[in-house]
Amino acid sequence: MRAAALHAALEMTGVSFSFREVAVFTALGLRIASGEMVALIGPNGSGKTTLLRLLSGALAPDAGEVVVCGRPASAWTTRERARMVAVVAQEGMAAFDFTVMETVLMGRTPYLGLLGIEGPEDVRIAEESLRRTGMLGFAGRLLSHLSGGERQLVFVARALAQRAQIMLLDEPTSWLDIRHRQEIYALLSRLNKEEGLTILTTSHDINLAAQWCPRMILIDQGRIRADGAPENVLQPAVLSEVYQTPLRVVADPETGIPWAFPSGPGARASDPQR
Amino acid sequence: MNAATAPGARAPGQRFTPARAAAVIALLVLALAVAMIVSLTLGSTEVGVRDLFAASGPTATSRTILLQVRLPRILLAAAVGGCLSAAGVAFQAILRNPLADPYILGVSGGAGLGAILASALSPATGLYVLVLRPVLSFTGSLAAVMALLGMARRRSRLLPETMILMGVVMNATIMAAIMFIITMADFSRYAGTMYWLLGNLSSPSTGELFFIFGVLVPGVAALAWMGQGLNVIAAGEETAGLLGVSVPRLRLGALIAGSIITAAAVSLAGLVGFVGLMVPHLGRVLLGPDNRLLVPASALLGALVLVLADTAARSLFAPTQIPVGVITALFGGPCFLWLFARQGTRGGAS
Fold first, then answer.
1. What is the domain extent for residue A259?
2. Integer distance in angstroms from the first to the last C-alpha of chain B?
3. Is residue B12 pLDDT above 70, yes or no?
4. Phi and psi of B292, rounded to 5°?
5. pLDDT digits over B254-264, tens only?
6. How many Å lie between the alpha carbon of B114 and the closest alpha carbon of chain A?
7. Would residue A158 count as lying in a domain?
8. 3-class DSSP state of A216
9. Residues B246-286: pLDDT tens digits?
10. For residue A274, what pLDDT is reported?
């Protein structure tokens, strides 16, 4: 293991957070080492997005500490943090219609000088980021004229242009079809392996996460219910309880990757003919 | 297929670069200069720029008309148009809404209330009123912006309908306060104030010209300098923060700059409406949404538009002069309605 993996990229200790007087997290602890690729799974309302926002610094905890690269999150300036942590969040339409290239160049904001104008190096990095996401051919297109999946890739490219060592993603595949889901996770996996990026992504697609992420964290009602390799986290009893629906888990006979799926006959239950 | 020429695309050359910005600005300065020269020639008296260079030398009358009556008024029109348009861009960026306009939001009204209050407190002219009037105008415009922002911050995003409604109510309240002050202070000034409330340009003193340009130039420069931050904020305040923008500082800076330039325009020209709405929209259509160019370009475009509007106001029905605010509202009102209807069908993208 690399030396870099010894220190934590992200660490939470004793974090409590309430939203509208309802406790979301109470004394939560979490450690993600540098160079890890981690999936955060859990049912709707379990606190995945809130956890991500606490780690990104978009939200401040009521108690406890969030440490980013060995220093309290609150000690970094907004600009410094944006050079270390890039976020791909669930983003609505922008108020004004920028092009793909303009949007990706916004990822260079934390590096711009006093005049706030990007130089040739920034343009090169933006183009490189677009190439990596396969969106270079869309550079001049308006964001409003892209499909949901294409827009998502632009936001990933913008995050890449931040050249941050840590990337946090909130449901990056929610608008995407099965091929684009595979492509996004393959890209994230490549960035993780080749460039040592630390990646934390939330996902509703348990199997996609299990396929690509060596570590999974299952949270439920603000508590960590399971944390470890997909084989250890995807336990039918815990999953069924957390998601409140009967689930079965089998290993893919070819790859050994665990697959979770609903048990029960579905529509066939009422149709004995089939 | 070439993506650059497809619908829903802009040519890659349209991206912000200092060279492109300089070229666009030079072109706009040239257009503004031409408009000013044309405007000098038009008016209720048959005097033209050529009279200044006549072989026999200019007559005293033509000199006075051109240099002491028309030129200051044209310069004032340019400054007021520049102030209101740049302020419009700033408010639109911060409120993330292309329908924001200092007049519609009640920011101009707030400045107007301050100006009226200053006149009521100190009817005499001189240094006292020269300081008190801008200071109270600025206080009024900033108070209106802060009230708006305070209400906006209770929602995740201010819907266009909500924002306009708040502006309408704010304007109605401010108008009542203005009428109250006028009635209490000096009823005989009612007619002149009526013109001022509609937005009216007259020939300013040299001091007033120095004042408005002294506010306009640094104000526009500051807003243009904040341009990339204003661009990023279009994606939302949280996203902007994650991209390294200090959102609270940027928001405060842009709103203060926008309020100051609005107040400067209002204290000299009254409530000229819709310029801050139409001009930035035109700017985005022509040049794209990048605020680093849009701010200075809108200021120049706004100057051009108001010089033309005021030329029309004082020469179309000469010797009768129409308040310039009547012209801008006659064009701007329908323009607003059109934008509003269009925005409803397109979900916010301008």
1. 1-69+206-274
2. 26
3. no
4. -65, -30
5. 999 999 999 99
6. 32
7. no
8. strand
9. 999 999 999 999 999 999 999 899 899 889 999 999 999 89
10. 54
For range A125-137, the mean pLDDT: 93
The residues spanned by each domain of chain B are 72-346
- With the C-alpha atoms ordered B231, B233, B234, B239, is the resulting torsion angle positive or negative? positive
Of B3, B15, B231, the CB nearest to A137: B3
Q: Are B245 and B254 a contacting pair, CB within 8 Å? A: no
Between B315 and B259, the more confident residue is B259
A89 chain-B contacts, CB cut-off 8 A:
238-239, 242
Q: Could you tell me if B28 and B300 are in contact, meaning their C-beta atoms sit under 8 angstroms apart?
A: yes
Q: Is the pLDDT of residue B6 over 60?
A: no
**Distance (Å) of CA B153 to CA A49, A149, B90, B159, B238:** 21, 31, 17, 12, 13
CATH number at residue A260: 3.40.50.300
Residue B51 vs residue A139, higher pLDDT:
A139
pLDDT for the residue A214: 96
In a domain, A44, yes or no: yes
**ipTM of predicted complex:** 0.89
| A111: pLDDT strictly greater than 90 | yes
The answer to whether A56 contacts chain B (CB < 8 Å) is yes
Q: Token pair of B279, please?
A: 């001009």
CA A38 to chain centre: 8
* B contacts of A91 (beta carbons < 8 Å): 235-236, 239
Output the CATH code of domain B72-346: 1.10.3470.10
pLDDT (mean) for B33-53: 80
User: What is the pTM assigned to this prediction?
Assistant: 0.89
Number of domains in chain A: 1
Q: A223: which residues sit within 8 A by CB, 6+ positions away?
A: A28
Please name the residue of chain B whose CA is at the shortest distance from the CA of residue A167: B242
Q: How far is CA B40 from CA B60, B73, B204, in A?
A: 16, 10, 15
pLDDT of res. B347: 43
Q: Which residues of B225-251 are buried (b: 16+ CB within 10 A; e: fewer)?
A: bbbbbbbbbbbbbbbbbbbbbebeebb
For CA atoms A152, A153, A156, A158, give the dihedral sign: negative
Interface subset of B 268-297, CB within 8 angstroms of A: 284, 288-290, 292
The type of residue at A60 is A
The shortest CB-CB distance from B236 to any of A56, A91, A137 is to: A91
Sole residue written with tokens 């909500």: B162
Whole-number pLDDT of residue B177: 92
